Amino acid sequence: MNESKICVGMPVYNGEKYVGGAIESLLFQTYPHFRLLISDNASTDATEKICREYASHDSRIIYVRRERNCGAFENFRLVLNDAKSPFFTWLAHDDVLDPAYLATMLGTIEADDRIVLAASDFKIMDADGGIIKVEELDAIRPTIQWHHRRVEFFQNPISNVYLCIYGVMRTESLRKVFSALSAPAQSSGGELPILSRIACEGQIVAIPDAVRSYRRHAYSEYAREQQAASSYSINERRWQQFKHNNCLRVDQCRALLGSKLSLVDKFRIMAYLIKIYGIKIPRSIRRLVLQSNC
């Protein structure tokens, strides 16, 4: 096998219904020099059998079964830790890549050393693979100046740019970011601590070409989390969501203030946050911040 330029990490748990389709979409890529790392989080269905069958016929596929379920976040970390290639992307076991995905994303990220994460628009699928809509990540196009794009990753609720967590990234930049994080209390919004820190490492961009499909269905981690929350009262759900959102906002500010960004860049982002959150600060300071060139 030729040396792989990109590693594809697939964390999976009980994915027998979709995992074969996800693997097939990778095998039909026009760019063939990849390595697929599958980390099976102690599945209890036919996931192991399916993955081992593919691995036995293609040397680019490495399958590892975990002895116990270590949680979704840790499983995402494990495939990243095992990556040896300069570029990396996660492939959810229920998602699908267009044949040109890897070639298109590698061409985008390699064209500019300042880019640490390159994504595309996303086709949103239902449980049966039907296309519901296309999520266009217009807020982070290459034509938009980076200091305007960057603020997208320091607000909560975030726009649809959270989907770019499934873009192609520079492995070392992502590993640096991920190594300092612990598992989020909830999966909803769990992309934000990662994306805000990546945005401090370099540029994030999305091209206007939907070459990746993201599946939404009743068996996803997010859906299970929402179903569990439905047992709470309305006030309890509101309180939990309030705490969760504010924890994410505090974390984003912590990531920003502790980053290597210049004081000017930090000031621009904080000015933006003050405006969208309506933070109450002394009038003299507010006037100075709101008049800044952000």
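That was protein one. Protein two is written in the same sequence-then-structure order:
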Amino acid sequence: MALVRSLTHISAPVDRVWTVVTDWPSHSRWIPLTEVTIDPDSPVRSGLGTRFTGTTALGPAGFDDPMTVTVWQPPADGVPGRCRVVKRGRWLIGWAEIEVRPDGSGSRLSWVEDVRLRWLPRATDRAVALAGRLVFDRTLRSIAAELAR
């Protein structure tokens, strides 16, 4: 699996960052070429058990990345917020974990993802991790910029 870690400071309170970053459809604004939707059969729209899909496409070529929220701990009383999603698709497997914690006058947003493209050999993990890091660093910068407005 390719482990990707991205981290940024956001000049917004923890509760606001948590609310924005766990609004799954809003990820469509930040992740290139991707549309995120809550699955119609999801038992909840937000929280533990939520099922959603990121559809990444360039023209007619694309794939779905279905995910399920398996850990849901909203921030409370100085305790960081943390959620984990498990990728359950035909193309991508693995997990992603998002954490939001107090950081000075704002928040620290951490995104860690361990992902594998099923059809690529393990020898490509380093390249996949580098590409993932570029995408997630850009994503976190976009989230931070949006919250700074």
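The first strand starts at residue 2 and ends at 10. Keep this in mind for the problem set.
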